[in-house]
Structures are given as C-alpha cells and as structure tokens.
Amino acid sequence: MTVRALHILLTRKGLLFMTDSLRFNEWLEIAARDLRSATVLKQNDCGNDFVAFHCRQAIEKSLKGYLLKQTGQVAEGHSLIYFCKEASKFDMEFKQQLKNCAFVSQYYIETRYPADVPLIVSDDEANECILIAENVYKLTLDKVKI
C-alpha cells in the first residue's frame, strides 16, 4: 500500500484528522499562479479554452485551500460545486458563488482533450471566467485573513 493510499484510508476511517495547518497557503499560492496564467494567456490570445481551464483550476485550489484551513484536511475530488457548498458551511458568502462555480465547471474536461464536438469558449466567456476566478480567490483570501 502506498503512503497516499494509507493516508486516504486512515482519513476515511476517521483515524487521521489534521494536516499541517499552514499548507493552505500553498494551495492559495498555486491558485494565484493559475489566475495569473489565465490572465497572461488571455492578454496574449493563447486560446480562451486554456484561459477557462486555468480559471477553473484557480477556483478549485482556492476552495481547497480554504477548506484545508477550516478542516485541517485536503478535500478530495474536483467538483467546484461540492467545494463551494462545503465552504458555505463555514461562511455563507461562498453560497453566492455557487452559480459561478457551476458556470466555470463546464470547462474542466472539455478544454483539456480533443472532442468530436469541440467546446468553443468565447471572449466574453473567457472574461467572465477570469472575473469569477478573481472573485472567488479574493473571497478566499479575505476569509483566511492572509
């Protein structure tokens, strides 16, 4: 059994509760890099699909960082809606971001792999993704008091 598999097993059985409480900062730093990447990609016309994907990643990492700060555990999975609902249990302001998370969620798989019917991300959609990612990131920073 790998160390990761053991960690997951112990966590699920309720035998492992806390991780390093400062690691949430790492999640937020990487979220900031994803957000900067999205902005640079947009400014340089490198593809709105990549912009949307990096925004989605920034939101996921922001929410995971917030949840790590609140619970001491790294949230598993990749659902922005789930993470936003979980964050709402600690602060209701996150609930206002549910629809935004649902909007950006559509850019997870479809922007990363070739598809029979490609997902075209318009300039307006890419700009909306950046705005949403910035708002979720800023909300998260405000709530963890960095």
User: Which spans have pLDDT < 50 for at least 5 consecutive residues?
Assistant: none
Order of helices and strands: HHHHHH
Q: Note the gap between the termini.
A: 37 Å
Morphology call: globular
Let me know the number of strands. Answer: 0
Helix-strand layout with pairing:
Elements: H1 3-12, H2 24-43, H3 48-71, H4 80-88, H5 98-105, H6 123-144
Structure summary:
The chain is mainly α.
Structure description:
α3 (48-71) packs parallel to α6 (123-144). The protein contains six helices and no strands. It is globular, with a radius of gyration of 16 Å. It has a single domain (20-144), classed as Nucleotidyltransferases  domain 2 (Four Helix Bundle (Hemerythrin (Met), subunit A)), CATH 1.20.120.330. With 146 residues, it is mainly α.
List its salient traits.
single chain, 6 helices, mainly alpha, Four Helix Bundle (Hemerythrin (Met), subunit A)
